[in-house]
Amino acid sequence: MKTLAIRNDSGTFVVSRQVDPDSFSEQQFEYMVVQALCAAYPDYRCITLGGATFRHQQERRKPDLALVARDYSHWFVVEVELSSHSLDHHVLPQVRCFSLGEPEQSCITALSNGLGLSFNRSATIATLLPRGAVVVSNRWNHAWASALRALSCPLLSVSIFDSADGNGHLEIFGQITYTSRSIGFGKYIATDRAIRFGKAIPLPTGKLEITDTEGFKTRWIIRRSQEHLWASKIDGYFNFAHESTVQIIQDINNCYSIRIL
Predict the structure, then answer these.
(1) Domains identified in the chain, total number
(2) Residues 41 and 169 placed together within one structural domain of the fold
(3) Over the stretch 62-98, which tens digit does the pLDDT of each residue have?
């Protein structure tokens, strides 16, 4: 059992003792997880995904929560698990489905309801934005962390503390980090031989290296006009159809790639 000594506003210490992790139902623990994630990750919105389903290899599974970046550049499917659950028969199959599978229409509906967005915009989030999976448990488990790491899935544990002043405290062990994010969408304009983006897209102006759809590194020039941002290839030609929708992805190493939708 852990004990915390936390200094309050008056300068005195309040002692908080950890509550038995097994004393909560999964529903009660999920409520605590939502509070913890909202506090620790203010750049994200944490919502429940009631009724949402993913499908992978003829198998359908239901996630618990979504953690959506407020700039709508990426998101995470969050699976809340009690340590009594089976790693091999439940946790890992869930993570494989949410990482590798496809969100069904029910997932888009859940995102739309939870975020207050239109169905079409929620469909963009569900199907086109980079997505990761996260597992949050009531106990830290090294075996779980190692197995999940192989699936590029972080493990977090949330501990609940009671204190004499009646104010509970939450402790999060572990960290969520994205591996890639969507910079934005644009249109290829054949007459300009350039991709036109909205002016707010966060691409640096000047020369930029972008990996194309075939994995080749290509050189581009990025310039801003009064109303748009334009991206033009320095060498070679486009093999895009006029008005093709284009997406730019940035990874954690600050490398860019392009997708044709």
Answers:
(1) 2
(2) yes
(3) 999 999 999 999 999 999 999 999 999 999 999 999 9
